[in-house]
Design goal:
single chain, two-stranded antiparallel sheet, alpha+beta, about 10% strand, Alpha-Beta Plaits
């Protein structure tokens, strides 16, 4: 299991989660192309440090992701294999 960042992060990118992550597995803060942050499923150690500091409640354990945010799970995974595809899916789910 890994942690997932969902729709509330889009166009927010607060960064509090990045600051508390002990393994630096959250990406997208320093890139203007990304409208949200992403947690690497290969690097996440499931410590949950990021979840309580998110000011928009966008971070969930994958198994606990609410139904209305389930579409964001594959986007988090896709980002680490095809960034352009993940960005396109974010734009589809939440147009600018």
């Amino acid at each position: 299991m890994t942690y997932i960042i969902a729709e509330p992060c889009v166009d927010t990118k607060d960064g509090a989660c990045v600051d508390v992550c002990p393994v630096d597995c959250i990406y997208g803060l320093d890139n203007d192309e990304d409208r949200m942050l992403y947690i690497s499923p290969d690097e996440c150690i499931d410590c949950a440090a990021c979840e309580p500091v998110c000011p928009v409640n966008a971070i969930f354990a994958e198994d606990d992701t609410p139904d209305n945010y389930k579409a964001w799970i594959p986007i988090n995974y896709d980002f680490f294999t095809d960034e352009a595809s993940a960005r396109s899916k974010v734009d589809e789910l939440k147009p600018k």
